[in-house]
């Protein structure tokens, strides 16, 4: 049976683009289709969390998003009595550490983030197919036959897998009859990207602090001359989103006549929901991103969680397509759904706090402590002094034996697994798909200042196996390393002959 492509990705938002970039760099064939004829032009998800920055580094465009965006400004909260206070968005000023190179969230409007992602995808030789809509599909034991509609008419695509990264109203989720339980939160809001006069760009202006129904938040969008206006509105009725309409809304709520909206480049009215899909996979079809979870924008979690869904799924699809056991794909839902469930609680809690004017984004919002302890992919009993299987693998500066400065994240970057040995006596023979790196005197990496030992709490003779998505798969001792690795890798790699490592 012939296939047009390995993976059909429906929806070229942040989740679809992440998956496409990951598959493209792995040389896995895919089609990325997008129903809109033009790229999305709104600011919506404007906050990029530190964990997502790490993923963007791995995918090769972190400096480009950093150059395009900027830090969040302080909040300026105006009280109804005319006083105001200035405070930070985070609980305190946060600084990078050796283990966490990105500390604070970056602000970049979603349209600009997606533009950088499309540019990265183009470098890898691919483009989304705009104006192409998934209109139906059927699956069998070997693949998915999908019907596409567009300006040039209907056509069929046969793919081994289909991934619906098609947003909160996901066609794929509906077609699979996956339940999407949760709550309507009884909050409707506007979001608009505007040019305006009367406010400076040094702070995020928040009017009507502690007055949930009449709040207005006006945020200068880094990297642009736009402001993003957000405000709750009545649950029913038309909202005037013209420059005059927004100027009037701001004047009524703030009492200020000196703020004038001159132009609106994008706007939307939306009702807030917190919903989580019952399943992320049916057979050869997956959902990821907002297709699998929707929630309030508070905390800046949605785009980030969507990127991280796709990043979790990409290497698993690539591995299974190359011959790894299909059961590996079950770990996608098992790992990602609990993360989304917790994120729904976080963003809903923060919505409540934002409405009272008390919201602070703390460490949890930065997503650096998310992980997969307890996952079937986290080798049981793997405990280091500081980390354990399932944890995010920390960064650490080190030096190559040739004398050059480097970092663990540079060693991890790419689509391989990494087996990091700390002052080992011997070294396993090469394993396809696994980069073996040893640390210590006479080894390829020097941990001169002890930063690797500090970050991992690792002891001489221990080995850390790091997944392609930067999480610790297992921590092993030299004794019995070969058989342990063989057993583990047989579940995740295309082929790992059981005897490859037995003698190591
Ligand atoms: C006001 C607001 C503020 C927000 N702030 C933040 C923030 O600060 N940080 C953050 O992380 N998140 C934020 N979010 C959430 C963020 O915007 C979303 O979580 C994110 O866009 C989800 O990305 P996605 O790729 O899953 O889906 P989407 O961005 O919705 O992309 C889905 C794509 O699929 C396409 N599509 C749909 N059906 C089909 C079909 N049948 N065929 C082909 N294509 C199809 C759609 O046209 C769309 O382009 C905010 C959201 C809002 C509303």
Automatic annotation (TrEMBL):
Spans annotated as Disordered: 378-400
EC number: 1.14.13.180
Keywords: FAD, Flavoprotein, Oxidoreductase
Enzyme superclass (EC): oxidoreductase
Entry GO MF terms: FAD binding; oxidoreductase activity, acting on paired donors, with incorporation or reduction of molecular oxygen, NAD(P)H as one donor, and incorporation of one atom of oxygen
InterPro entries assigned to the protein according to its UniProt record, in alphabetical order: FAD-bd (IPR002938), FAD/NAD-bd_sf (IPR036188), RIFMO-like (IPR050641), Thioredoxin-like_sf (IPR036249)
Domain of life, per lineage: Bacteria
Cofactor(s) in the UniProt record: FAD
Annotated ranges, domain FAD-binding: 4-345
Family according to the record: Belongs to the PheA/TfdB FAD monooxygenase family.
Protein name: Aklavinone 12-hydroxylase RdmE
Source organism per UniProt: Komagataeibacter europaeus (Gluconacetobacter europaeus)
Lineage: Bacteria, Pseudomonadati, Pseudomonadota, Alphaproteobacteria, Acetobacterales
Gene transcribed to yield this protein: rdmE
